[in-house]
Specification:
Distance between the termini: 25 Å
Strand content: 5-15%
Mean pLDDT: 79
Shape: rod-shaped
Order of helices and strands: HEEEEHEEHEHHHHHHHH
Number of helices: 11
Structural class: alpha+beta
Length: 302
């Protein structure tokens, strides 16, 4: 995930304003934060706070910092306080954690009666300027950042989803040849999961709502194609006919009553029940801001 992508994701949680392409400004509990990158490979959440006009007590900053989890260090220089995290540790999941940390940090300082070093009027003016800068950045994006933001990972992810679907269909065919119900069900379950798993592996990104929808479409098509292929292979095992003829004749054999329609349509229930369950879990996990599919699988392996 590049810097611009991360700022977009982070601001989805924070609701701050862009003060330039790579700087966020916002107010939490009366504490004004500036979130930006520095030149030494770290992301910094900067604030300037005072307690009744005096510099902050180190013990108070330590206490507030102890409530954070994502940040790896902090600095205090008079009223200036910086919360620091390595850029290499940034991800979609970290964006949510940083939002939680800033809220916890601000809550702690606000409870101790700390205020930002700027007057409230100055804060309002800075936020207005940040809103104007955000609007200008949206209308006239920085060319270099725009080039970085080109969605190459989408193409890689879509390619991965198609590869995952093909692998799933092949595995499903192999299992279905065993001619037992449980291998058939297992193959359908595996095929439901592989497209989105391969998408995340190839794109190296957690899937968004649009990407989940794409994977769901690819998986549905793969299930329909795989089921038709399974029936075609079954026809070829019992009759000496070519594959293309077997593939074309499947619906007609069901229509003419040669194949049991109940058994044929039962396969669709077997396919779409695990599909519905799996994507219900994926969508709920996305809405609640949980881990990606590949992260969940890794956690189970461990």
């Amino acid at each position: 995930m590049n810097n611009y992508d991360f700022f977009i994701e982070l601001n989805n949680y924070l609701g701050f304003n862009f003060d330039g392409p790579l700087k966020l400004v916002g107010n939490i509990k009366g504490i004004v934060f500036e979130v930006l990158y520095d030149n030494v490979g770290t992301l910094k959440a900067h604030t300037a706070v005072r307690l009744f006009g005096d510099d902050p007590y180190t013990e108070h900053i330590e206490s507030a910092y102890a409530k954070t989890q994502a940040f790896m260090d902090y600095n205090v220089d008079h009223e200036n306080v910086d919360l620091i995290i390595d850029q290499n540790q940034l991800s979609e999941d970290k964006a949510f954690d940083i939002c939680q940390d800033l809220n916890a940090f601000a809550d702690c300082l606000a409870a101790l009666m700390y205020k930002s070093d700027a007057e409230q009027k100055d804060i309002a003016e800075r936020l207005d300027e940040a809103r104007i800068a955000q609007q200008q950045a949206m209308i006239y994006p920085d060319k270099e950042e725009l080039e970085k933001h080109l969605p190459d990972h989408y193409i890689r992810g879509m390619f991965g989803a198609v590869i995952g679907a093909m692998v799933g269909i092949l595995l499903w065919l192999v299992l279905a040849v065993l001619n037992y119900m449980w291998p058939y069900v297992l193959g359908a379950i595996v095929l439901c999961a592989l497209p989105i798993v391969f998408y995340e592996m190839f794109s190296k990104e957690k899937t968004s709502a649009v990407e989940i929808s794409f994977c769901l479409f690819i998986t549905t098509v793969a299930l329909l194609l795989g089921n038709r292929l399974n029936w075609a292979v079954t026809l070829m095992r019992y009759y000496v006919i070519s594959f293309d003829l077997a593939y074309r004749e499947v619906p007609y054999l069901v229509q003419d009553g040669i194949y049991d329609a109940i058994e044929y349509y039962r396969d669709y229930i077997i396919m779409f029940v695990p599909l519905a369950i799996f994507y219900f879990i994926v969508i709920r996990n996305y809405i609640t801001g949980g881990k990606s599919v590949t992260q969940l699988l890794k956690k189970k392996k461990q």
